[in-house]
Model the fold of this input.
Amino acid sequence: MIGQNPADRGKYGTKRHVLTDQRGIPLSVVITAANTHDMKAATETLDRTVIERPSKSQNLCLDKGYDFSEIERESTKRRYIPHIRHRGEEKELIKIGYPSRRWVVVERTNSWHNRFRKLLIRYEKKSANYLALVQLSCCLILYRRIILG
Done:
């Protein structure tokens, strides 16, 4: 196959990299261009948490887009225990009849973000404005989950 990656196709767009807790509450969010690789925003997402972390190690579940030794090393340095889905693992699990699984909590948080019409399709030209809308949606998600139940 010749040309650009069929998944990215050099399209314009935005990715939201979200760090959540076990209930799906967003703790950190970073936006990047859609054609940037996931590994480039991983450490920035870990560094931008809005609450103070406990001193003990915490589990960090990542999908196969983050399957690089640098990310594993950086997350360990930040007191996380990385659980990274490895590339090719999905095909092996399907061969033996094991159902496909996704990190449900993060997918649910992405779905909550997509319920805000301003985030579903980005109309803002400035990335700072879009990031502000994403952060506002994180505040509303937090309010709805913790205060309203």
